Amino acid sequence: MNTFSRGPFPATRMRRVRRHDWSRRLVAENQLTANDLIWPVFVFDGIGRQPITSLPGVDRLGTDQIESMAQTACDLGIPAIALFPATESALKTEDAIEAINPDNLVCRTVRKIKASVGDSLGVICDVALDPYSSHGQDGLVHDGYVINDQTVTVLTQQAIVQAEAGCDIIAPSDMMDGRVKAIRIALDAAGYTNVQIMSYAAKYASSFYGPFRDAVGSSGNLGTASKNTYQQDPAQGNEALHEVALDLAEGADTVMVKPGMPYLDIVSRVKTTFGVPTFAYQVSGEYAMLSAAAERGWLDREKVVLESLLGFKRAGADGVLTYFAAEVAQWIRDSH
Ligand code: PBG
């Protein structure tokens, strides 16, 4: 590494290039722009906005808020949003059948966005059953176990109704085996050859998802049950590469690592190993953690958020799903 060095101090002074702002900008290896951001958005079937206690500053959006949200994303230069429905509990069932209703909340929201901003904004839809299941699991449950292959069949149908509604990127977050392949085949057979798949390839069984489950109303249903039989064990590193390799072989266009900050080693290894578009999800618990400390005045909100996102870029992420997306895009805009 240092064979070209003129030798140690005093010949080398690392602080020289750090002295002035122009110089620090000049040598900067990474830069965060609005193009790096994906904005996760919660929607509900009603009017107005609903605050989410464990995600201060993030609201569920009613149907009347959708167009202005989409316009805001476009104005800020955010390339894509990821939609998550807070389904009414009356519509949640054991078999999560609402997931494949072509007129469910998410499909109606996609249509509304596409009718208002068209292709100016990419729309990502999650494929998993937890927003629709009465038990809060991502798949069908039989004898207390989430059954893989039968779940995959439902997931392919869910992907199709979302593609029909105009979704640009199908994002399976369920961690069933073989679902990427099944979804790709189903999309192609239905003529949606240009609909992308962004797989939640390395998704861990994390305790950082708590506030998200409050947001979509699945935490009460899930209770003390875990998702450990399908999401990855946080002890595993190499296994994430195996997951990514399989999802790519099955047809994923882009891959995601989730959660974000505690898993930057995985982001870096995935990017280095495969060189494919790699995304990271700064999940709800990470948002809550940073927000709570900032609210108490213990951390500077803007500074720590920007630093955390630059960390994703440095690790090799091509983009980050973050609940801070709109705020960050505004900061970036204001700083120019
Ligand atoms: C659904 C899903 C989850 C998240 C994204 N999609 C929750 C889970 O797996 O329990 C979490 C996102 C977040 O915490 O911000 N399968």
Which secondary structure elements does this structure contain, and how are they paired or packed?
Elements: H1 21-27, E1 37-44, E2 49-51, E3 59-61, H2 66-75, E4 80-86, H3 105-117, E5 122-127, E6 141-142, E7 145-146, H4 148-165, E8 169-172, H5 179-189, E9 196-203, H6 210-215, H7 219-222, H8 238-250, E10 254-258, H9 264-274, E11 278-282, H10 284-295, H11 301-315, E12 319-322, H12 325-334
Parallel strand pairs: 1-4, 1-12, 4-5, 5-8, 8-9, 9-10, 10-11, 11-12
Antiparallel strand pairs: 2-3, 6-7
Helix pairs in contact: 2-3, 3-4, 4-5, 8-9, 9-11
Description:
This protein is α/β, with parallel strands linked by helices and 336 residues long. The chain has one domain: TIM Barrel, CATH 3.20.20. It contains twelve helices and twelve strands. The chain has an eight-stranded parallel barrel with strand order 1-4-5-8-9-10-11-12, surrounded by nine helices. The protein has a two-stranded antiparallel ribbon with strand order 2-3. Strand 8, helix 5 (179-189) and strand 9 (196-203) form a beta-alpha-beta unit. The protein is globular and about 70 Å long. The chain starts with 20 loop residues before the first helix and ends with a helix. It binds ligand PBG. One of its GO terms (cellular component) is cytosol. Belongs to the ALAD family. This is Delta-aminolevulinic acid dehydratase. Homooctamer.
Can I get a quick summary?
This protein is of the alpha/beta class and 336 residues long. 39% of the residues lie in helices and 17% in strands. The chain has one domain: TIM Barrel (Alpha-Beta Barrel), CATH 3.20.20.70.
